[in-house]
Every structure is written in C-alpha cells, then in structure tokens.
Design a protein that fits this description.
The complex is a heterodimer of chains A (265) and B (259). With 265 residues, chain A is of the alpha+beta class. Chain A is built from nine helices and seven strands. Chain B is of the alpha+beta class and 259 residues long. The chains are: A alpha+beta (265), B alpha+beta (259). Bound molecules: iron/sulfur cluster and FE2/S2 (inorganic) cluster. FE2/S2 (inorganic) cluster binds next to loops of chain A.
Amino acid sequence: MSGTNNMNLTLKVWRQKNAQTAGKFVTYKAEGISPDMSFLEMLDVVNESLVHKGEDPIYFDHDCREGICGMCSLYINGHPHGPKRAITTCQLHMRTFHDGQTITIEPWRAAPFPVIKDLAVDRSAFDRIQQAGGYVSVNTGGVPDANEIAIPKVIADEAFNSATCIGCGACVAACKNASAMLFVSAKVSQLGMLPQGQPERYRRVQSMVAQMDEEGFGNCTNTGACEAECPKEISLTNISRMNNDYFSAKLFRQEELHEQSHGEG
Amino acid sequence: MSEFKQTFNSSLGKKLIMALTGLFLCTFLIVHLGGNLLLFKNDDGFAFNVYANFLTHFPPIEVIAYLLYLSILVHALYALILTIKNRKARPVGYAVQAKSDASWSSKNMGLLGSILFLFIVIHMSDFWYRYKYSGSMNYKEYRTDLSSGVTQSVEFAPTSTNFENSVQTENNFEIVRVKDLHERVQQSFSQWWYVLFYVIAMGAVSFHLLHGFQSAFRTMGWVHRKYTPIVEFIGTWFFAVIMPLGFAAMPVVYFFTRS
Ligand code: SF4
Ligand code: FES
C-alpha cells in the first residue's frame, strides 16, 4: 500500500465515550493513504495503527460498504457523507481529498440521535417511526399474478424513487432544524402511492408523523438542505405529498386514528 | 375537538398555521399596496385621506383588520415556538459547516421575520395607533366645486374633541372633513433615517416572501408540475420584486419631492 500518490492527512475526529459524557475533538495523522481507498478504509487504517499502539480505536458505523444499507454516517468537513453529491460515506474515495488536507469528522448531530460512542449515533428513532406505520398488510391465500394490478409507469417510478431511501439519516444531519421529514415522507410515499399501500394510507401517515414528533425531531422550513445532501437524492416533493395526505386525513376524512389502531387492514 | 387540537399541535399542524397566516398576510399586502398607491395622486391627500377614513369606519373592514392583527401575532408566536423546538432538536452544533445549496432567505426567515415584526410595531404605532387613539391628528377640509370639479383643501379644526368626519353639500360645494393622515405621511417620510428604515424593511419583505410564499404552498401539500412554477413565478416576481418596490417607492418619492 505504498503508491507514489499516497497522501498524508490530518484528521480531527470527534471522540466521545458515550451519550452521558461530553466529547471532544482529537487530532490524528493518517499517513500513506492511497487515493483509491474508501473513506471507511482510511479509517480502518488509522484504527489499525491505534490498536497497535494500544489505544481505543475510533468507533464508527458501517455494514454493506456499497451504498445500500444506510449504516455508514459521518459528517465530513461540513457535509453528511462528505463533500460529494449523491453518495454514502462508504462510496466516498480518498481521491476527493488532497495531500496535506485537514479533515474534520463529526457524528450526526440531533437530539433524537444520541451518540453511542465517538462517531456512531443511535438511529433507532427511525426504526420506531417505521414500526409505527411503514408497512402494508398482506392477505394470505393463493399467489396473485405479478402484474394483476395495473400501476401507471410514472406512479411506479415515483414510488420507486421514494423507496430508494436507505434510512441513513443524512437528511436530519444536514437540516438546520434537525427535521426528519424527508425520511418520513419518503417512507410514507413509497407505500402511499401504490395500490397495495392504500388500505393503511391515511392511518400510516398519521401514525408515522405522530411518532416522528414524539422522537423530538425539528420542523421542516422547506430549506432543501436535506434534498441536496441525501445520498439517494430523495426529493423535497415527498414532504409536500406527506403533508397533503396528513392534512386530508386529519381535516377532510372520517378516519379516526385511535379507533382504528386495532382494526383490520 | 381533542382530535382538532392534536392536529394543530403536531409539527405539520403548526406548519400549516404558519402557511395559512402567512398567505393571509400576503393577500393583505396586495390590498395595502393598492390602496396606498393613492399617495401618488397629486391631490393634497384627498383620495388617500378619504380612503383611510373609509378603512377605519367601515365595520366589515374593521373585523378583517382585527383578524389581520391576530394573524401577525399568531404567525410570530408559532415561528418562535417552532424555532425553539428546532433548536432543541440539535443541542450540540457542528464544528464545521460547509456552504449548502439552500437559499439564503430560506435559512434566515427568523431574522427577516424579526426585522418585519419590529417594522410592523413602529409602522402601526406611527400611523394606525396615532390615527385611531392619540387625538393628536390634524384635520383637513376638502371643498369640491360640483360644477367645475375642482377641489381645494384647507386646514380645519373641529370644535368637538371626538369629531371623526363629515360630508355635506352647501351651495353647490361638497365639503369633506377628515383626519389628515396624509400630513403624517409627509412628515414621517421627510426624515432620511425613517425613509432608510422603510427601505430596509421592504428589503426584508422581499427576501421573506421570496422563500415564504412558495414555501407556504409546499407546506400545504400543493406541489404540482404545472402549478408550482406559476406559484414560484408569482412569489418571486410579484411578492419579492414588484410589491416591495412599490412600497419602498412611497417613502423615497415623498422624501425627494418634499417641499
Ligand atoms: S431521505 Fe436520503 S438522507 Fe434521509 S434517510 Fe433517506 S436516504 Fe438518508
Ligand atoms: S456501509 Fe452500507 S451504505 Fe455505507
């Protein structure tokens, strides 16, 4: 791993023992970093040297390392998932940086995402929002034909775009209000736009928004930083779509959230 | 009822309140601009004073006016509540924050709104409060010769302290006596710092509405491939350009044409 283009970098990394203790920045040298490494591989190299020295390695989240699981996070030089558009941190390559550069790495900052350790935050608030309504009911019985229900192409495409959200939380991290509305609206839209999602459509949006509020996320001001930083380029239109469903459920429909919570699909 | 409360206490409900009050204030601005264009009539304030008198003495308009004051307060109050909640959602800030693509106005709605609130307080205490409650207003009498249509104005001092207005016809002359708000406008707009403050406030209106008008539609869930560009066009050109320019023109023109 000693190519001629290798870089030496200075890392300012947020270190924090747990949610209860205060954290601080610690500076590390990352030496001989290949431009072809991913950002996470660079951290692996740094961690290896820390372990060799008998120090505590930097704690960060990751799993698939190919941009599909949403586990990696990191607020890198002022951007969630680093300075490049439409990628996750695991897809970010070190060639994006230059030799001698200082890189500041912070965790997602939001009250509903408490720090577990160092750069890893607890995103189970998203799981609870999903559990509140991000599903469809399916009847048992014979296997239906795949194309039995006609869905217009534009609708299928839009629903699919919303469904590409990987639940990484970069939208919350980027938003000046720490609002989760881009995530929630993507999850509401991916089901609410399709025929299979209709039975729970209006209940779903109410339950998920209620859970989102309970978790303590901020309130959207249509600023659009989320859309710009989302690795999957989920569009702000989802938020309007969610609002539309929410207001029609609350103000114009006869669906009572509480009465229906034990009801059938 | 509790369902209703729950709706408006939710994050989306509060945003809806912001959007609805905001749009109501936008529609008011249209009327306000339209009426105040009478200031540009060169008639020693005749049309403007009669208009001001009409606004303050026509009951349906008074009802709408109080709805308007309520909207301003609710809009500001909810902005405050939402801002506090948003701050709480991020107790620890970032050490490094890169410049984002988001527009400047969308990130500074609170600052712009605060400037506007201060402006509204000063503006209303100078004109609205003085006009209605201070008792220190001068009066003017407009005599229109009904055969020639020529109007002449003279100072007029009422004998009774609670005199409001009067219209009468005498020997082919129509005599209109009203409070002279136009004189207050002239006085206020003859001070350079006052004019400057107005122009700055109109800049704040421009940036506030540049984001606010279209954002309100987004919040209400009205996004459409055909109509959203129209909303954005109106928000930009009418509400953020033409209207603030129209309002700002009043103090500027009065300042430079003062006698
Ligand atoms: S909307 Fe985008 S940024 Fe937010 S959780 Fe989904 S993929 Fe991540
Ligand atoms: S590790 Fe799975 S998206 Fe980055």
